[in-house]
Amino acid sequence: MKDVTAPRAVVAGGAGFVGSHLCDRLLAEGWEVVCVDSLLTGARENLRDAATESRFSIQEADITKDLDVEGSVDWIFNLASPASPVDYLAHPIETLEVGALGSLACLRLAERKGAGLFLASTSEVYGDPQVHPQPESYWGNVNPIGPRSVYDEAKRFAEAVTMAFHRTRGVPVRIIRIFNTYGPRMRRHDGRAVPTFIDQALRAEPITVHGDGSQTRSLCYVDDLIEGIWRFLHSDLTGPMNLGSTEEVTMAELAELIRSLTDARSPIVYTERPVDDPENRRPDTSLARDRLGWTPQIPLREGLAKTIGWIRQDEVPERSGRGETLPSSA
């Protein structure tokens, strides 16, 4: 039987990479979890562990069309969006819709249920930053009409509407800005550097680095991110709050490190740089460190080794995930 006293969460985008790890953490903490996902980029197979719990259920639904959940809800976690450049460039309208209409749907459900709203925003709101590292007070340098704008501006709107509901309608909110996160359950072909480089190395294919490889990212292992989310949820802060690693690495260095960790003989080749690709990306995490006592614990080399091990074991071809049966909350 379900524990009627357990906190109840709705996780929009819960079948995705980060969303599925969040579902697992909430369940481990004793929560009841309803995952809502259209499966545009998420996969049911990410929820295999969660599906063994009686306190878990899934609704396959597009939150840009409608969002309703029966029963009480304590917190709604809005993680619904394509998150990799390959995905949001392939689905630009859907990305804008989920950032705008989907965020509104989550906030309206929170208002109806008397629940809080947790928004997973992104470091992309800073664009190609002219301030380094990026503090939460920085307003960003975003091209509003470039190809990446469908994701950047969708998340900026999501932040704005979340704060509007908080200020005018009293909805409790938390806003985090996620910097580049990696780990198990990333799709091998989603276009982001870590899974792409690992997949190419394991297949003994050339490792393709954009530009001259001097651009930097700060990569945070997913378990560290989830710990930051959990601590922020239980704080009295609203945000936005940066969550990410301050361990900065160039893309050329990342390619070399992955080649070494996989014992690959793949050559590293350099390709054309994408439009509006940020030159540098590293968060100022002083707020999370000082107010939450949070700092990432897993070094890049260790996290990459864990991710490589998972990808090596994951021999099942990627698929939509619609074929498996998980418990329904309908």
CATH topology term of the domain at 8-183 and 220-246 and 281-298 = Rossmann fold
Overall pLDDT score: 92
The percentage helix is 25-40%
Q: Kindly state the number of beta strands.
A: 13
Termini separation comes to 17 Å
Specify the CATH class of the domain at 8-183 and 220-246 and 281-298: Alpha Beta
DSSP helix count?
A: 9
Structure in words:
The chain has 330 residues and is α/β, with parallel strands linked by helices. It has a domain at 8-183 and 220-246 and 281-298: NAD(P)-binding Rossmann-like Domain (Rossmann fold, 3-Layer(aba) Sandwich), CATH 3.40.50.720. The chain is 35% helix and 16% strand. It is built from nine helices and 13 strands. It has helices at residues 17-28, 85-90, 92-113, 149-169, 193-202, 222-233, 251-261, 286-292, 300-313, and strands spanning 8-12, 32-37, 56-60, 75-78, 116-122, 173-178, 181-182, 207-210, 216-218, 220-221, 241-243, 248-250, 268-271. The chain has a seven-stranded parallel β-sheet, sandwiched between helices. The protein has a two-stranded parallel sheet with strand order 7-10. Helix 1 (17-28) packs across helix 6 and helix 5 crosses helix 9. The longest helix is centred in the N-terminal third of the chain and has 22 residues, at 92-113.
